[in-house]
Design a protein that fits this description.
about 325 residues, alpha/beta, Rossmann fold, 3 domains, four-stranded parallel sheet, SecA_motor_DEAD
Length: about 325
């Protein structure tokens, strides 16, 4: 550790030190919030919205809004007790460190928290604040179960403060999904948010779109979603209008090719590419001069997709066969 780091602390420590006075200010408001009746606490949401409309920024409102959420959580949210080891009902109140986590998320930064440190509760603080403008907040979780669980778990607090919360699911109908997006706060997976965005851009009329404005999002497991899963593109496909004959021909040719000699496989990129010798073999098998001529430009795609299927995808690991359907397995969610 360098002498400057010992004296001034790391960059992360300096950031946290700068946020502590804000957390202390929020804590100083706690007694005042406790003195409010339920109705008075609920009315704070309307007052915040009026102040926001009058020109106050969300940063200006942050200390008071976080104090309101802390008190509403204490009154309305029940701490989990899966083993029934705690005989008395324990409510949930964000600790100071969770307030700091909420501040960091509101500022658009990354907050690293271990499992069990209350990420679900932390997210409610900036979610409430950013929902005040009425533009919607998306909370991105890693699977449908967590999206539905977290929404239901935090819903009593949101509704107590006059906000609505919804959850999008992969098996939802159009009307259900529309209602979930119309809520002040919407929980869902990154894949579902992504596919809904793609589907909305395929709709003919604007009023048919479900997602609406993209305003503010909180992403759980951000490293996995924005780095690991970002390698897998979201693609909406439909039945091909072309004959399937070329797929069968490509499959027969691909089975004759040898890895390392006729084609190269890149496992990290999930790709397979023909070598010069492989290209010659393919052209001979097809009886054409060049697979890259204008009339044959689709052949490299068919051949290389077939090579990928043979070299990179394995039954019951990367895909399963159900009846007459082949279903691709998501490597991140199963």
């Amino acid at each position: 550790m360098g002498i400057l780091t010992k004296v001034f602390g790391s960059a992360n420590e300096r950031i946290l030190k700068g946020l502590k006075p804000i957390a202390d200010h929020i804590s100083s408001l706690e007694d005042n919030m406790k003195s409010l009746t339920d109705a008075e606490l609920r009315q704070m949401t309307d007052k915040f919205r009026e102040r926001s409309s009058s020109g106050e920024t969300l940063d200006d409102l942050m200390p008071e809004t976080f104090a309101v959420v802390r008190e509403a959580s204490r009154r309305m949210l029940i701490a989990p007790n899966p083993d029934n080891t705690i005989k008395t009902i324990k409510t949930m109140r964000p600790f100071d460190v969770q307030l700091i986590g909420g501040i960091v998320l509101h500022q658009g930064k990354i907050a690293e928290m271990a499992t069990g440190e209350g990420k679900t509760l932390v997210a409610t603080l900036p979610a409430y604040l950013n929902a005040l403008e009425g533009k919607g907040v998306h909370i991105v979780t890693v699977n449908d179960y967590l999206a539905d669980r977290d929404r239901n778990w935090m819903l009593p607090m949101y509704e107590f403060l006059g906000l609505s919360a919804g959850a999008i699911q992969s098996n939802q109908g159009y009307e259900e999904k529309m209602a979930a997006y119309r809520a002040d706060i919407t929980y869902g997976t990154n894949n579902e948010f992504g596919f809904d965005y793609l589907r909305d851009n395929m709709r003919i009329h604007l009023e048919e779109q479900v997602q609406g404005e993209l305003n503010y999002a909180i992403v759980d497991e951000v490293d996995s979603i924005l780095i690991d899963e970002a390698r897998t593109p979201l693609i909406i496909s439909g039945p091909s209008e072309e004959s399937t004959e070329k797929y069968f021909i490509a499959d027969k040719i691909a089975r004759k090719l040898k890895p390392g000699k006729h084609y190269e496989v890149k496992e990290k990129e999930k790709s397979a590419h023909l070598t010069d010798e492989g290209i010659s073999i393919v052209e001979k098998e097809l009886g054409i001069d060049s697979i890259y001529s204008d009339i044959h430009m689709d052949w490299p795609h068919f051949i290389e997709q077939s090579l990928r299927a043979h070299s990179l995808f394995f039954k019951d690991t990367d895909y399963v066969v159900q009846g007459k359907e082949v279903i691709i397995v998501d490597e991140f969610t199963g």
